Amino acid sequence: MPITIPRQLPAHGILEKENVFIMDTVRATTQDIRPLNIVIVNLMPEKERTETQLLRLLGNSPLQVLVTFLRTATHDSKTVSKSHLNQFYQTFHAIKHKRFDGMIITGAPVELMSFEEVNYWEELKLIMEWSKTHVTSVMHICWAAQAALYHHYGIGKFTLPTKCTGVFPHSVSHSTVELIRGFDDEFLAPHSRYTGTSLAAIQADDRLMVLAATNNDDPFIVISKDEKHIMITGHFEYDHDTLAKEYQRDKKKGLDPVIPKNYFANDDTKKTPLNRWRSHAHLLFSNWLNYYVYQETPYEWK
């Protein structure tokens, strides 16, 4: 079944060319089917790119998925047009009376600030608390994963000596857990962040389970044992060239960025990197939609 998005959304044309099964909202209303309602809290600055990346992964499913995009009311994005936000995004106030089958909260470029310093932190806390009773399963990505660990479980973050950027191998534990069903024992995934979270602190919390970590004991996939919260500390959704664009962006800013590890062939930044994590990214999102959203959500919310 397709993913349902507005025909005017820029991602619609991109995904259509990629042969991703999509359907516009007008046609979807003619089908007698109950779609999965997913709300995406998009905190990334380049919202259109993130929309495409996430919709591509959500569209690889036999389930019909209806997506709602959410923006913060307490922060004005400077990197996307107001017309785009007004046309395709809603605020929490407009949707707080609704219930959703799943939620995705993206990363955000605010890692070096304390959580309390982020100008939309109180709003995000409100959304995370609301999700406990109005959303079946929540996936948190990168900074949002650290925010969830901090808000829900009191586990903080720490600043890394240098930026963690590149494509890293990860080892699987608890391979029978449905979220990582079908994963290889070792797989690759991209990371891009300035902060980390203690593996020991997560393992010491009996409410949490680490499903995958880097070979340097950096937690990557964490799930709460009640299966309500999923924390992904990296960026499975990234395109093959996203890290390259971030590197070039930071270089133009004069930040002297480190070259992403295990990414460019021979660390030659002029070479086009390969996507070596696509299959596991699709598998993770398919498993999430099937086992943690579709299988768990009530047909009719009460």
From TrEMBL:
GO terms for molecular function: homoserine O-acetyltransferase activity; homoserine O-succinyltransferase activity. The active site is at C142, H235, E237. It catalyses: L-homoserine + acetyl-CoA = O-acetyl-L-homoserine + CoA. It holds the Pfam family HTS. Substrate binds at K163, S192, R249. Its EC number is 2.3.1.31. GO terms for cellular component: cytoplasm. HAMAP family: MetA_acyltransf. This is Homoserine O-acetyltransferase. It comes from Virgibacillus pantothenticus. The lineage of its organism: Bacteria, Bacillati, Bacillota, Bacilli, Bacillales. The gene is metAA.
